Amino acid sequence: MKNIIHSIIASAAIFGASTLSAAPQVFDFEDPKGVNNVRFQLDAPLESISGTGNGVSGKVKFDRSAPKATEGRIVLDAASLSVGNPLMKEHLHSEDWLDVKKHPSITFELVEILDAQVDGDNILADVSGKLTLHGVTKEIQVPVRFTYLPDRLAARVGDPSAEGDLLVIRSRFEVNRNEFGIQAGQMTDKVAEDIEISLAIAGASPRS
Known about the structure:
The protein is α+β, with helices and mostly antiparallel strands and 208 residues long. It has a single domain (24-206), classed as Beta Barrel (Lipocalin). The protein has 3 helices and 11 strands. The protein is globular, with a radius of gyration of 21 Å.
């Protein structure tokens, strides 16, 4: 009888360990619908410039029960950045500004979750990460809201047969273009030095 009990306990321990190890999910932020986007705004004395970039990709490994173990990176195709004025967009992509041919990607690589608090379906966290922009990498700290949406992939893609979960990442923060070597100190009347960045992007974790 003792041996049977020991066997049951051992089996349960193995099952529990495998369940725990399978808990983290990988969420893919490359959205076939093209809905994911990053917004940016520069508010200078003479002009306010706003635009979006929809070339979002990247993967994040996330476990709601252990948010501090989150890892991954988000990538934005610099050439996807757009503003309403075609000439201004051309200048934005040019060698004088973002130089998208030389620096095609803007990336944020997560380094550490500094603080995480559960708020209903959300996890609010301060995230430290490496932002690479215009070929320059700086470590920054940004506030992030993670929203885990189980079994909502079908609703997102409009296909009832699509099984899986979603992770929505929301954040709003500022960077200074001078720190990334983007026309430092130039044209400040028309192009603000501080860039406000905001995003609300969804990653998918399908079940096969």
